[in-house]
Amino acid sequence: MTDIITEQATAAASGAAATEQFRSKQRTDAVDVDAKRVDTLVSELLAAAHDIIRRHKVTYAEYDVLKSWLIQVGEDGEWPLFLDVWLEHVVEEVAGENRQGSKGTIEGPYYIPDAPRLPAEATLPMREGEAGTPLLFQGQVTGVDGTPLPGATVEIWHADADGFYSQFAPDLPEWNLRGTVTADEQGHFKIHTMEPAPYQIPTDGSCGKLIAAAGWHAWRPAHLHLKVSAPGHQLITTQLYFKGGSHVSDDIASAVKPELILDPAPVADGSGREVTYDFVLDKA
Ligand code: MBD
Ligand code: FE
Fold it and tell me: Secretion signal: which residues (predicted)?
């Protein structure tokens, strides 16, 4: 037995951190949605709900369950989690419709800007003896015509072997497994990290309650999150998954695309796995 008191990871704590993080981005300030569009979108959303209530003869008891669940989602700070798991993938699909370059996918609730700057070949910040299989993730950033993009930036963040993200779970160093890598003059980068594990969204909050009530599962496949950018080009937000990994074909967040599945090979000296993945960015 250890006498160190370890704070438990809770849905409410990670929800509060995700809500705070979202608010600090203030992306909402940048858009001024006109009344006509609000009218159209909200009216259609409500009409869809009315239709469901009629077709399924939703009862007052069920209506009250919904009301108390919605109240609880807010109290748990789980709106970012709920929206990013069940809606963001369609917003991303629409946003990425006309892109020629690499596929993107959802950002999710756990991105933090301004992670430590790292050179083109770097090891992500991690703990002494960080658990997991070492992974060398390397590649090149180019334009759609294949031109290398010098000084491209590769932001990367991912969960640890227990499925926890730094700054959203207790007892992790601030920037654990997060970094901002500057590619070299040819757009090349070489990132040493640890393979993440499949990720289970918090089961002890409102989203977990919904999952249990519906008989779903709470898993996302193991994934790396990335934001790749270069001067004069569109930033791409994406994720990469691992071939053969659990839940690659039944991601709770519906964010897997065939182009985003890595197939790392064992490193010759037995020290983990390596994979090359190139990013192609559209012109801004
Ligand atoms: C995650 O790690 C994630 O990437 C998404 C999209 C939702 C919840 C947790
Ligand atoms: Fe994630």
Answer: none
